[in-house]
Amino acid sequence: MRPRFPRLAAVTAALVTAALLTAAPGPASAESNGGVRVMPLGDSITEGTQVPGGYRIGLWQRFGTGNYRVDFVGSQFNGPASLGDHDHQGHPGWRIDQIDANVVTWLRNTNPRTVLLHIGTNDILQNYNVANAPARLSALIDRITATAPNADVFVATIIPLANAGQAAAARTYNAAIPGIVQGKVNAGKRVRLVDMHSALTTADLIDGVHPTATGYDKMAATWYTALRAVPGSIGDPVTSSGRQVVGVPSGRCLDLPGSSTTNGTQLQLWDCHRQPNQSWTHNSSRQLVVLGTKCLDAYGRGTTNGTQVVTWDCHGDTNQQWNVNANGTITNVLSGLCLDAYNFGTGNGTKLVLWACTGQPNQQWTMRVPV
């Protein structure tokens, strides 16, 4: 998930880019921002069938807007570049018993603080001993709470189904879930009920089973509301620790022109001010983040002199990782090249590029609290 085309690509190429930026499902290449570990757990609705990333896209965006620092965890990985953390534990076609057979290993490997559980749809679709599905769900919750006793487990009713017979079976299954959850709460377990069924209608389904993009976003909003109601489940909003990145010879700041959120916007020098488009956070993943979700990026994973320095949706690749060095340079992890004010420019609008480190003043930077 990285820039792949020249900046002047035609509209058709841009559409191809959008398609390529969607990662295929597969084993996770674990991403972490050091935040509160949250495991999205379930089936294809967690994975995001029809809309890769599913509800996790909108949920991630809400975390960013709310200044929550969250680390999705799981052995699976998919979704678009705009989803800053692609890890999850969603398995298309899986029933409750199949999740139960593997969940201990997943929990031990990731140690989540919070679990988002939406499961049971395939038990209905496969007509798999549906009468005992609530009992299987209860046993799965017990296994989760026994393995991760300090985790908050959010148990969702399953979303609507379009087929009338299956919809009736889903309603019967859902009707048992509040009592199951209350029983766990009465036993001192950290289990919460989330009414996901009421959040969507069959009009929000793209194929009678999986949500549309709008439907997935409704799921995201419902999860987010539930999480914010439980202190600690996603930590506390992080107070901005943003800094200005100031060019030494110019005294001007690293600036995102017009506060643009368009991927591929090239950075420039500009008179320093206190606006968010000059407020940068160097996080534990070595990303330089602006506006909450945009990262300083070596365009197209470039490693040669003159590579444009742009902003892009944060995705964790090494072309978005930067070392802020004691000698005043800022170097890209992928290329080893220095952040450089092009052609020794010092005026407003001077573009930022990568260049072989020379020790010259146009490659010297300080990070300071906005003044």
Automatic annotation (TrEMBL):
The keyword Signal applies. Gene3D superfamilies: 2.80.10.50, SGNH hydrolase. Keywords: Signal. Residues 242-368 form the Ricin B lectin domain. Residues 1-30 form the signal peptide. Transmembrane segments: none annotated. Pfam families: Lipase_GDSL_2, Ricin_B_lectin. GO terms for molecular function: phosphatidylcholine lysophospholipase activity. InterPro entries: Ester_Hydrolysis_Enzymes, Ricin_B-like_lectins, Ricin_B_lectin, SGNH_hydro, SGNH_hydro_sf. PANTHER family: SGNH HYDROLASE-TYPE ESTERASE DOMAIN-CONTAINING PROTEIN, THIOESTERASE 1/PROTEASE 1/LYSOPHOSPHOLIPASE L1. This is Lysophospholipase L1-like esterase. It comes from Saccharothrix carnea.
